[in-house]
Amino acid sequence: MCAGGVCDRYIPLPGVDHLSDPSPHSAWSHRWNDCERDALFVGCINSVTSLYASIPIFAILGFKATSNYNSCVNSNILDLTNAFDIQDQNITIENYDLWLKTLNASDPEKLSGLNLKPCVLQTFLDQIFNSYVGSVPLLVIAFFELVGIVVFYGMDRFCDDIEMMTGRRPNLFWRVCWRGVSPLLLLVVLVAYIIVQVQEHPTYPAWNPAYVNFPEMEEKPYSDWVFAICVLLSSVPVISIPIVAAYRLMQRQTRSHNSEHLPNPYNNPTFTPDNQT
């Protein structure tokens, strides 16, 4: 079979019944393959690959952010130099914040009238994604994965599968963690996070020349539409979990309801035993 220019060849494995066990045809490995070894190997490869890929990505992002920040600060320095008749090279990027504090204390009205650009390294959208995309969805997904395995699939079946693939059952430590410790910790962290978010309206650092502690960033609450986006970013990745669960429950109830009304194939009132004829 060829796909994308890569051809798969059928390789018979010794000692395997290829007619009754089709798994080697697709996976090229025995059904009792050591999945623990493979998981560790794949995890190490993924970690190294992620680190290798993150270096150039974040280096480029950091360089771009620093370059934009320096350009913004230099533009503000030029405005301050012209407005307050300050000699060139007196205000630099290093002492820019100190000059802002001094000028804001001496002539705040003139400084606020310059409409200086807000110069920050982290953008508004970056803060939203960093705060709401990865935290809550990962907690919810991990919690329901554990619940699905322990409650619905069954811990004994799960341990049997691991024993079949690795040759040994998970020890007591892993079973205790999967059955109670890990779900409980995830649930506590999730509930605590939700309580904190409900009690405190989310805020973001804003550039406000009229702020008392200017040029420090002022913490301002998100607008209602931004808060709605934050809720969507947290709920959309996990909304499929309750939807699929409700769909499966409806399917099960429908099957049980239909099975009650199906005729019994062994119930034949016209059948008469031979000894009664």
TrEMBL record:
Assigned keywords, A-Z: Membrane, Transmembrane, Transmembrane helix, Transport
Record-linked InterPro entries: Na/ntran_symport (IPR000175), SNS_sf (IPR037272)
Main location group: membrane
Biased composition, class Polar residues, residue ranges: 265-277
Ranges annotated as spanning the membrane: 39-61, 132-155, 176-196, 225-247
Pfam families the UniProt entry points to: SNF
Annotated region described as Disordered, given as residue ranges: 257-277
Membrane topology summary: Multi-pass membrane protein
Cellular component terms (Gene Ontology): plasma membrane
Compartment(s): Membrane
GO BP terms in the entry: amino acid transport; sodium ion transmembrane transport
UniProt-recorded name of the protein: Sodium-dependent neutral amino acid transporter B(0)AT3
